[in-house]
Task: inverse folding
């Protein structure tokens, strides 16, 4: 398997080949995503909500996200490794952003850092880039900027950037490219504004929720893709698998075998 690079991502955009970014927070899932052919494996600040039960992604700390990033780094060999900034360093200024980026690069070995709300901080994007850490810039209606657009965090997934804001987001994308961003994460792009942004810049434009095939690539949480959630125990997910139910059934049977004094599968 070849090693992905930032220049290769740009070539994929030119060739019309879609890039795939999978969000992972642990070693095993990172290995699986890497082997499956992900171009980017991203350590999202969503780890706090989805893995550790936080109520909001703003709660995640640098120390917590470093734990996840180090684990994922050990599992990724071929994909580019991206890691989200926790809320705080970017908003505090360029100097703090550079410090956070250096920590993630030195301590966790990330290939690039993802900055949510980056369009409001082009000077920080430029400073981090100048420090030698590539920037994956996130903008649109994002978890960290939703309130700015009058959208609650709980409603951010499913929001769509209004079509009349096309000029604003094209300008933001160009500003981020000029500041040195190597790729963009346009959240909730929609089928009108999204293509306009893709055409306006030469760097790849990917999207998580609210994105679509009109972008240069897509971002998907590994847990969402495979249905790894307790909520799917009693419902059919619209995902590629129902790992939540598989895990529930397996553990239910394991517990029954323990109580029934039976041999446990896979043990010896």
Result:
């Amino acid at each position: 398997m070849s090693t992905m690079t930032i220049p290769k991502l740009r070539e994929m955009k030119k060739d019309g080949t879609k890039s795939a970014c999978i969000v992972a927070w642990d070693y095993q899932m990172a290995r699986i995503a890497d082997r499956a052919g992900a171009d980017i494996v991203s350590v999202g600040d969503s780890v706090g909500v989805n893995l550790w039960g936080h109520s909001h992604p703003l709660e995640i700390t640098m120390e917590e996200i470093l734990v996840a990033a180090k684990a994922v780094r050990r599992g990724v060999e071929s994909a580019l490794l991206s890691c989200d900034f926790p809320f705080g360093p970017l908003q505090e200024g360029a100097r703090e952003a550079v410090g956070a980026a250096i920590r993630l690069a030195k301590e966790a070995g990330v290939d690039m850092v993802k900055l949510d709300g980056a369009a409001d901080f082009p000077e920080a994007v430029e400073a981090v880039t100048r420090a030698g850490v590539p920037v994956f810039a996130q903008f649109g209606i994002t978890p960290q900027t939703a309130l700015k657009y009058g959208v609650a965090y709980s409603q951010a997934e499913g929001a769509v950037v209004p079509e009349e804001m096309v000029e604003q987001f094209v300008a933001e994308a160009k500003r981020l490219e000029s500041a040195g961003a190597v790729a963009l994460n346009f959240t909730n792009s929609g089928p009108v504004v999204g293509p306009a942004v893709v055409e306006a810049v030469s760097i790849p434009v990917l999207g998580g929720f609210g994105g679509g095939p009109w972008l240069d690539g897509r971002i998907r949480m590994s847990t969402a893709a495979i249905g790894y959630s307790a909520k799917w125990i009693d419902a059919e997910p619209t995902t590629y698998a129902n790992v939540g139910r598989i895990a529930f059934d397996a553990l239910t049977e394991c517990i029954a075998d323990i109580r029934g004094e039976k041999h446990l599968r896979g043990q010896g």
